[in-house]
Amino acid sequence: MIPNQRALFDMPDDVAYLNCAYMSPLLKSAAKAGEQAIAQKRRPWGTFPEDFFTQSEQTRALFADIIGADADSIAFVPSASYGITIAAMNIPVGEGQEILVLSEQFPSNIYPWERAAQEQGADIATVSAPAMTPDGPDWTPAILDAISERTDVIALPHCHWTDGALIDLVTISKKARKVGAALVLDVSQSLGTMPLNLAKINPDFMVAPTYKWLLGPYAMGFLYVAPRWRDGRPLEENWLNRKGSEDFAGLVDYEDDYQPGARRFDMGERANFQLMPMTKRALEQISEWRVDNIAATLQTKTDAIAARAQEMGLTVSASHLRAPHFLGVRFPAGVPDGLLEALAKEHVYVSLRGTSMRVTPHLYTTNDDVDQLFAALKAVL
Ligand SMILES: Cc1ncc(COP(=O)(O)O)c(C=O)c1O
Q1: Which atom of ligand 1 is closest in space to residue 108's alpha carbon?
Q2: What digits encode the pLDDT tens for the residues 112-165?
Q3: For a tag on the chain, would you pick the N or C end, based on fewer CB atoms within 10 A?
Q4: Whose CA is nearest to atom 16 of ligand 1?
Q5: Percent helix, strand, coil in the chain (nearest 5)?
């Protein structure tokens, strides 16, 4: 168990911020790294050509290490949608074949597939929300049922963004391989806080921005690319990801080849001198804590919140059907009017997605925050 880490964040005592799924707070140390980076930009004569590569390569390696991959597997992207677009541009889909997605999946993992389907005469097949059981919705059997010889792409998260419902990617990946479907993952709502067995799941592409569970800044993210796609087509042709770009004097000797591995997919200006130091610091902290420890610690917090919600007559999924860090609380009598506003008045921050109240703590969440949530909820119900 990791002890409470609130002191590392700039979080007043009277704020119960239970909304990491929306946007994580920046670590004080990451904010400081960002401030130093802004100061550096005021004096650009201290930035040298090698600086375009060193910190981004260190950050790439740090991220790769967190997911159990090598640095050659990783590209920098500004958003989940950018990464999914790269996947959708590169994976061929047969005419009349299917791209499988979930009902109410986040749009960044829908729109690129709609375009791919339109352009290639394929269909989007949407797995309907499974029936509600006493333990909550169980997506995995529903997804397995929907995979067939017609499936060319399976585009999924690790947990549903509306309520944290868990998806067993190891089991799904076995069926994907059996039918020869590509597996593309948007793990924006889980990477950094929930272990993922990369070797067993063996996704084709996998993307996550840093501004949620990776505790980084907005407009920065990572794309994992399996070796089988590393000679693919990047979304933009930029000079930094071409072979030999380290030699600034030689840049006008145009180069057809790319930097090795997944680097060809890097977004333009990936050196990103302001965001990169914040990203690096956040990843160092996550590595220090370790993702399995973060998950185990957050599981105890969500379990405690779930138990208290149930005592109040609210419903939550059983722990085997939900992600360890993520709770979707449902109101059998309907979502009370003005719920979010009433909670925010008491400095309690959660989100509503559909009929689910997302409660997403992190290592800064204290028992007092949880008391504050339930005191505010009691007043509303
Ligand atoms: C599942 C999921 N994917 C992606 C994103 C963000 O997408 P993008 O980085 O394309 O803005 C979100 C934001 O809420 C999300 O919940």
Answers
A1: 10
A2: 999 999 999 999 999 999 998 999 999 999 999 999 999 999 999 999 999 999
A3: N
A4: 161
A5: 40, 15, 40
SS3 label, residue 282: helix
CA angle 5, 8, 14 (to 5 degrees): 75
Determine the Cα–Cα distance for residues 244 and 283; give it in Å rounded to an integer.
28
Mean pLDDT within 294-304 = 98
Phi, psi values for residue 251, rounded to 5°: -65, -25
175 pLDDT above the threshold of 90: yes
Distances (CA, A) of 259 to 29, 72, 186, 220, 315: 31, 10, 25, 20, 51
For 62, other C-beta atoms within 10 Å of its C-beta total 19
Binding site membership of 184 for ligand 1 (Cβ less than 6 Å): no
The residue to which tokens 């990791």 are assigned: 2
Residues 118 and 253 in one domain: yes
Flag whether pLDDT at 251 surpasses 90. yes
Angle, CA of 140, 159 and 330, to the nearest 5°? 95
Residue 81: CB within 6 Å of ligand 1? yes
- Is the CB of 161 inside a 6 Å radius of any atom of ligand 1? yes
Same domain, 231 and 303: no
3-state secondary structure of 317: coil
User: What's the CA gap between 117 and 308, in Å, rounded?
Assistant: 45
Q: Round to whole Å and give the CA distance between 283 and 232.
A: 27
Q: Total domain count for the chain?
A: 2
Residue with CA closest to ligand 1 atom 11: 79
Ligand 1 atom with the shortest distance to the CA of 209 = 9
pLDDT, residue 353, reads 87
Pair 164, 236 in one domain = yes
Last residue in a domain, options 266, 288, 310: 288
Domain span including residue 323: 6-21+291-380
Residue 290 φ then ψ, to 5°: 80, 135
Enumerate residues 6+ apart whose C-beta is below 8 A from 35: none
